[in-house]
Amino acid sequence: MSNKFKILAIDGGGFRGAYSAHLLKRVEEEFNVDWRKDFDLLAGTSTGSIIAACLAMGKNANEVRGLYAKHGREIFNKPLVPRLGLLASKYQNYGLRSILNDFFGKTKLGDIETPLMIPATDIGNGCVHVFKSTYHNKFFRDKNVLVADAVLASCSAPTFFSPTLLPGDKPYLLADGGLWANSPSLAAAFDAKH
Predict the structure, then answer these.
(1) CB 52 within 8 A of CB 185
(2) What is the pLDDT of residue 91?
(3) What's the pLDDT at 78?
(4) Residues 6 or more apart in contact with residue 18 via CB below 8 angstroms
(5) Which contacts of 123-128 are long-range, i.e. CB under 8 A and separated by 24 or more positions?
(6) Which of 56, 58, 116, 120 could cross-link to 133 by cystine, CB 3.0-4.6 Å?
(7) CA dist list (Å): 51 to 10, 64, 79, 148, 170
């Protein structure tokens, strides 16, 4: 019996997620990897959260690669009217929100049995916010959060996309997890340790 705990951690990087998805597709094909069975925790920040969430839901890496190929231009759509001001976002998140809603549907983090971690940044309270599927009985805060909302929050990179307001009993204003964990590997390793 192996006592190894295997983590797949996928970094942020905007449209470069297409490259990560392509590499994972090749690994999947060459080594016949089943991400949900062969790894104990999937973690992804920003664009990596799209990939990690897809794999945790049972989609294969080729489907994820196709998402970037088909919708990349929609995600990074420039507004028709230039936004004014230093704090204005470069892109509207309507395209990304619509694509994530279509791709993930009404699936909630509590519906995912695979251990999944998605870092975001709580800019309203000045702290980190780590979304987790309910892979431990102490993880109940996020069980009713839509996967699409968690991913959108993690992808809300300042200057590129506006922050995401996560509704609920206690609303959160969230931005890109890459502000503190562009590579989610350390956060995932910490979680695995405990």
Answers:
(1) no
(2) 61
(3) 59
(4) 65, 68, 69, 72
(5) 123/163, 123/173, 123/174, 123/175, 124/171, 124/172, 124/173, 124/174, 125/172, 128/180, 128/181
(6) 116
(7) 8, 6, 26, 12, 28
Write the pLDDT tens digit of every residue in 121-177: 999 889 999 999 988 777 778 899 999 999 999 999 887 778 898 877 778 899 999
167: its two tokens: 């509704």
Sequence-separated contacts (24+) of 120-123 with Cβ below 8 Å: 120/150, 120/153, 120/154, 120/156, 120/164, 120/174, 120/175, 120/176, 120/177, 121/174, 121/175, 121/176, 121/177, 121/179, 121/180, 122/172, 122/173, 122/174, 123/163, 123/173, 123/174, 123/175
**Residue-level length of the chain:** 194
